[in-house]
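anyone seen this seq b4? input:
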Amino acid sequence: MATEEKYVKKGANETPIGYEPVDKDWGVGTSGMVKEPSPFSRINSWREEFIETPLTIDHERACLWTEAMKENEAKSTILKSARALAHVLRNVSIYINDYELIVGNMAAPPRSAPVFPEFSYDWFVDELKNDPFKERENDRYLTTEEAEEKLESIHDYWKNNTVHDMAREMMSEEELKGTGAYGKGMYMLGNYFFGGVGHISPNYITIFNNGWKGLKEIVEKKISQLDETLPDDLKKKEFYTAQLTVIEGTMDFIKRYAKLAREKASKEEGQRKEELLQIADNCEWISENPPRNFWEALQLWWFATTIILIESNGHSITYGRFDQYMYPYYKEDMDNNTFTKDFVQELIEGAWIKISELTKVRDKISTKSFGGVELGGPTMTVGGLDRDGNDATNDLTFMCLDATAHVRLHAPWMTTRWHSNSPDELWVKAIKVAKLGFGLPSFFNDECIIPSMTNRGRTLEDARDYTIIGCVEPDAWGQEYGWHDSAFFNINKVFELAINDGKCIDCSSECFRYDRCVGRGEQMGIKTGKLSEFKSIEEVKEAYQKQMKYWVDRLVKAENCMDFAHQERKPLPYLSLLINDCTERGIDVTAGGAKYNFNGPQGVGVGNVADGLSAINKLVYEDGEVSGEEMLKALQNNWEGYEDLYALVNSSKIPHYGNDNDVADEYARFAADAYCKQLENRPTAHGGVFQPGLYPVSGNVACGSVQGATPEGRVQSEPIADGVSPVHTKRGSHDVKGPTAVALSVSKLDHEIASNGTLLNMKFTPSTLAGEVGDENFISMMKVYFRRKGMHNQINVISRETLEDARKRPEEYKGLLVRVAGYSAFFTELDDSLQKDLIERTELAF
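predicted toks r here
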């Protein structure tokens, strides 16, 4: 161990809770753009390099994977997958930059996207040739001629041989016409239809306790206990052999970094030489053994996660409860004077930049809808209860939040857990960080989430120990294959068909998939009658429920087709080492080996359906101001010629969700429950059941783009409401009574049935949250919201004027981070439609 003073703790800890004083105020709003936010020069220099480094695409992982698949053609799919991963780990180029204290990359240089042809590839080659990634307006990726040639050269091998190809062939025309890729966008399957499943959090304690050598011994023992005359055991032998293959490849991969660190150390002097030598020692040790201190544990943590990403490009590989599983190493090091608190804080902040460097290339349509997300989903959870029901807050909880305030990048997606006994100091720290304005951390309610998880069959202890996956999805980390965020289901589109006899509203809308979609009056869903024919709001609601069942049926079949395709063509033997029960049972995680198995598609547009029902009931059935036929004609004409009616449905004369109005809020609950109750508890293809969520990421923009005008006051192609937030249209916001009224309305939804997560976005003007009064107002509102069983909240703290100026002068706002939906991103990198949606959200004030 290096012994320079920097690494040795001397004297008492001057800051008893976290690194910075609990009540340190970093400022409000655009202070997220400060040039040197960290107290560590290394971190500031590295952060600046990160911001200036362009995104690129790297060919090595794709070519090595294809090479191995060809060489092992006669092997079973799981052995081919294992050998391909091991081949990549032993042969891909590796890197150590000048700032790193933990090392390892995702089979590509920092800020470079590896390619995963086994999931889907036709779109990639098509865009490579015809819509170059380097010419995009947003999420631009540079490529070299060599990379382009090599990536094109493997295309023939993957034709009709990908996960996507198999899933698509399994779906009927009825399922395909509901997709965003081949139909009208009733549901968008993008994450798992074109890429890896992801949305998991590994069991870090398993690898910390055993090391790779220990895991290898466990697998070897399982093999020794098999009776290969039994068919099931013979199949398990293939699985265990694949696991041994990836373990050996992993050990070799880590040792390659040890060797590289020693080579680089031989060319350095002073502190950096000592750092590199220690990095080499750390890697050499943890390539086989359990970690002995915080630095080694952090290095093992990083490799364990990064190799999951190399095996599969799944979105939202999540870092779990960092302050819990890392705390024993931190505490022992502090007690034994192994490291200074300064050094541990610097290690953590370096890890945050490493997470931010990870990236992923998506197709142009997904980029338009989910721009700026980079890799996406690297969530980290702190705070909350422990497995015994006690508060789990510790020193690392605060240090993680301090790191987020110091680094000020889009990752990790920091989430905080809350319960009635959460310490006041943590509330103060969390709001001080959130006020910086880049959307981190977000807030989750243990007292809603834990019951929702036990209701789906998890034990109380596992539910108490939950982490957040991706945007808002609760997960029993290390034990669950949840298929969270598996689709965006447009319930406002269901409502559109419900009032127009199963047809899209006939308007002049040109949706982004129009060349492939059913629309303009063609039959889309089942015949449920028209608004011009319905005699009461109850008939409207009945049509909505019938249309809902039809489309949830289609969604479930499409999801199961994708599920079977992943099992057949992309098993995950490496991930299966780090998810409980897979190794014990001898079953791959994709095939149901995990302790808990779910599928979690989410409904989008709760507020829209609520306000649409409210407008129809008020104007057509209660007041008789318009007929159902007139309302339908107004929609078919995109409100043109019906300007007075358009203004009326967007006015406060209509009860609107988000204003603590029981009438409108009851419609919101009905709209959400109709989806959730149709979906919940249906069986999945990998065991377990479906569980609904209510959140859009930023899919509300894409969902709106495939719709005509709708009765809550949208015009054609306008975004629908994000998450469980109220509606805002071009005409104006529907919530007009402030943030407390929003919180009260949202809390009337049944968040527990939406056990895959709900998402509430709020945008505050900076002056509203300034000072201690701003802190107290926000904390008081959140405590009321959580007492009423609201599940989640996240905030933007930024003015409309600042965002509009950033659109005009993007070069002046290169570091401006905003909360898009479940994720934060650089504002200037977002598609224009996403920027507009952010600008038009309601600005709240107490």
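The longest strand covers residues 596-604. Confidence is low (pLDDT under 50) at residues 1-15, 508-519. kinda curious what u guys think
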